[in-house]
Structure formats: C-alpha cells, structure tokens
Design a protein that fits this description.
It is a single chain. The protein is mainly alpha-helical. It has one domain (about 5-85). About 85% of the residues lie in helices and about 0% in strands. It has three helices and no strands. It has helices at about 5-25, 35-60, 60-85. The longest helix is centred in the C-terminal third of the chain and has 26 residues, at about 60-85.
C-alpha cells in the first residue's frame, strides 16, 4: 500500500515543475511562475493531512477509492466540457 503513494507524490511534484518551465519560457516570464510549484506543494501537504485524518476515521481503502473516483470524475467531466467547446458540429 505504501508503494502506491510514491508515484503519485513524486510525479505530482516533479512533472508540474517541468511543464511550468516550458510554459514560462513560451510566455517570457519564468520568475513569477515559481510560485505555482510552491502552492502545489502546500496544497498537497494539506490534502495529505486531511486524507490522513479521514483514513483514521473511515479506513485507508475507502479514502483512496474516494480520491480516485473524484479524480476520475473530474478528468472525464473536463474532457467532455473541452470536447463540447471545441467541437466543430
């Protein structure tokens, strides 16, 4: 179970920085974009603390499944919204 957290945490912190460097270079402003990974790290720390408290109450399995369902619903709904916005029909 502990190994399932490693990829999510490391990818969540590392991938954002690499993507933001490319976005900042394209926009011509790298100095102000460094606040986003910091905010991302703080939000991750807070959400992990909240999820830890919920897993003490409800159990780790249900908290992980709920988080994955929320992520899946968010990804599907955003992709449907973007598809409807950019659809040619």
């Amino acid at each position: 179970m502990g190994l399932s957290y490693v990829a999510a945490i490391s990818c969540g912190l590392v991938l954002v920085t690499g993507i933001l460097a490319q976005i900042g270079t394209a926009l011509g402003d790298i100095e102000n974009i460094v606040w986003i990974p910091g905010g991302w790290s703080v939000a991750s720390a807070v959400s992990f603390a909240i999820a830890g408290g919920f897993s003490d109450i409800f159990g780790r399995r249900y908290v992980l499944i709920t988080g994955q369902v929320i992520t899946l619903v968010g990804a599907v709904s955003l992709s449907l919204i973007l598809f409807c916005l950019f659809c040619d029909s």
